């Protein structure tokens, strides 16, 4: 079979970084081709070249159906049949579903007015082809993240795309939404569309791929049918380590001492709105890693925002046996709390600043004496974390904006870990992080607990929760629906509490 798209000897150099080094990638029509590789391996850069966002260095070639092409920009890429669906959604919330699908190319009547009936009918046709039940006239802002992602796919289909690139599409989806997306991707492939699927999740890769290409340090290390790939081999190709050596054994450092106790934590009513999260009671022990699990929308992030003072609440929080009034994040920080948010780009980092500056934002005073900042000490501390977490950056002075997504996430974690809060809340700490780095994050959290810090881990990755928690609290519809000791927490018992 002739490939639909061939990328031959593609390189891309940024100042101080060779992001791609003579990469070859052949994509066939009708196949799901998974692109795997650790954070910073070059996956997104390759996709940006394929969609005309970036130009490759001279010397390589791109062919579509055998013909050499120069992909000038994203509009040109689309006209060549290449579309991309990003994890950060590109839909407009205050337009309807069909307005989004036909944005900037609405069908017109002879009078020059938009032909809404046709637009809705065509959208309905694409959606039913996908087998999803979404009203074309619904406002996109009222839909779930998963549904919004499906709208993007509907848009790509209506462009008659021959190749659809999905960059970590399931990262923010619930389990159910993710399986709908996987099913849909397979269906599109069976209709002859080529799919490029970027993912860090091993189970998902094996569920969806026809072929897998692994990138490492900007080079193609292997391409093979998924039937000739195993988890062990994939991990070895990606991070050069064995899967069973990556994750160590769990040791609990939890003590009997209660460090924080939370009672009747309830969202504060805003005007006439009802409250969602209510009556949350739990204790957190010194040195404990406490997992918080729940399905998407169960209220996990809301609970953490209330504890951290960024969401109005009623109820009592005590720290070290004393009532703590926390009505803003600065109150929380004063009481020794740290919060690694789920949304790294908008709340976790100042993208235009360097890795070092972002790192020390939370604890600059540690490096100050008199009125001076001891730059050497600051840079050395930052370099230690770069090493411990394997942050891929040419230097601590690199702007965070230029790091890959997974490496940005590691910087957020490093800056809070270095502050050494008494209580650290981490929300989805390993989303978008490769499997090697995930092991490093788990080990960092374990050693912080060993030093006596208490950690709350919020994650929708159930195996992760089970692997690192001393105890698991389950939320369902804004309330605690289960509390399980490490011995009693299994996939089944936790899911049962989460779904009732
Ligand atoms: N504009 C830029 N300037 C400098 N370096 C860059 C720029 N864009 C990307 N890089 C670097 O190129 C390398 C490849 O990054 P890329 O985003 O392609 O990785 P990735 O495989 O998609 O990683 P992740 O899994 O974390 O998303 C990284 O070292 C990154 O820091």
UniProtKB/TrEMBL annotation:
Instruction: Please indicate which superkingdom the organism of origin belongs to.
Output: Bacteria
Pfam families tied to this protein: ABC_tran
Q: Tell me which residues make up the ABC transporter domain.
A: 5-242, 260-500
Keywords tagged on the record: ATP-binding, Cell membrane, Membrane, Nucleotide-binding, Repeat, Sugar transport, Translocase, Transport
Q: Which Gene3D superfamilies match?
A: P-loop containing nucleotide triphosphate hydrolases
Name assigned to this protein: D-xylose ABC transporter ATP-binding protein
Source organism of this protein record: Thioclava marina
Span of the signal peptide: none
Q: Which InterPro entries match?
A: AAA+_ATPase, ABC_carbohydrate_import_ATPase, ABC_transporter-like_ATP-bd, ABC_transporter-like_CS, P-loop_NTPase
GO MF: ATP binding
């Amino acid at each position: 079979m002739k490939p639909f798209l061939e990328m031959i000897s593609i390189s891309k150099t940024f100042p101080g970084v060779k992001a791609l080094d003579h990469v070859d990638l052949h994509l066939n029509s009708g196949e799901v081709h998974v692109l795997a590789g650790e954070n910073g391996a070059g996956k997104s850069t390759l996709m940006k070249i394929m969609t005309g966002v970036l130009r490759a260095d001279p010397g390589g070639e791109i062919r579509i159906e055998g013909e050499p092409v120069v992909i000038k920009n994203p509009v040109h890429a689309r006209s060549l049949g290449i579309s991309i669906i990003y994890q950060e959604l590109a839909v407009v919330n205050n337009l309807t579903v069909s307005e989004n699908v036909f944005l900037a190319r609405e069908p017109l009547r002879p009078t020059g007015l938009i032909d809404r009936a046709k637009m809705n009918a065509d959208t309905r046709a694409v959606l039913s082809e996908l087998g999803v039940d979404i009203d074309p006239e619904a406002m996109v802002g009222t839909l779930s993240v998963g549904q919004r992602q499906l709208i993007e796919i509907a848009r790509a289909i209506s462009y008659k795309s021959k190749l659809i690139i999905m960059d970590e599409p399931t990262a923010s989806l619930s389990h159910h939404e993710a399986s709908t997306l996987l099913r849909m991707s397979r269906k599109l492939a069976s209709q002859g569309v080529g799919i490029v699927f970027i993912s860090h999740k091993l189970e998902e890769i094996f569920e969806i791929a026809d072929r897998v290409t692994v990138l490492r340090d900007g080079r193609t290390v292997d391409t093979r049918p998924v039937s000739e790939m195993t988890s062990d081999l994939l991990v070895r190709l990606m991070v050069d380590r064995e899967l069973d050596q990556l994750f160590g054994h769990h040791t609990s450092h939890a003590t009997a001492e209660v460090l924080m106790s939370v009672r009747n934590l309830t969202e504060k009513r805003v005007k006439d709105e009802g409250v969602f999260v209510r009556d949350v009671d739990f204790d957190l022990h010194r040195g404990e890693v406490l997992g918080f699990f729940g399905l998407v929308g169960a209220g996990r992030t809301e609970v953490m925002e209330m504890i951290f003072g960024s969401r109005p609440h009623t109820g009592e929080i005590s720290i070290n046996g004393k009532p703590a009034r926390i009505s803003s994040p600065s109150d929380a920080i004063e009481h020794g709390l740290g919060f690694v948010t789920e949304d790294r780009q908008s709340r976790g980092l100042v993208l235009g600043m360097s890795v070092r500056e972002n790192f020390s934002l939370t604890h600059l005073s540690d490096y100050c004496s008199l009125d001076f900042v001891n730059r050497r000490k600051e840079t050395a501390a930052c370099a230690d974390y770069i090493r411990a977490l394997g942050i891929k950056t040419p230097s601590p002075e690199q702007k965070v904006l230029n790091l890959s997504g997974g490496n940005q996430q590691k910087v957020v974690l490093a800056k809070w870990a270095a502050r050494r809060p008494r209580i650290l809340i981490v929300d989805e700490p390993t989303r978008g992080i490769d499997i090697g780095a995930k092991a490093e994050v788990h080990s960092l959290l374990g050693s912080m607990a060993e030093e006596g810090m208490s950690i709350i881990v919020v994650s929708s990755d159930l195996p992760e929760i089970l692997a690192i928690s001393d105890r698991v609290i389950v939320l369902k519809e804004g309330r605690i629906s289960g509390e399980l000791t490490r011995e009693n927490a299994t996939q089944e018992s936790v899911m049962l509490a989460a779904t009732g």
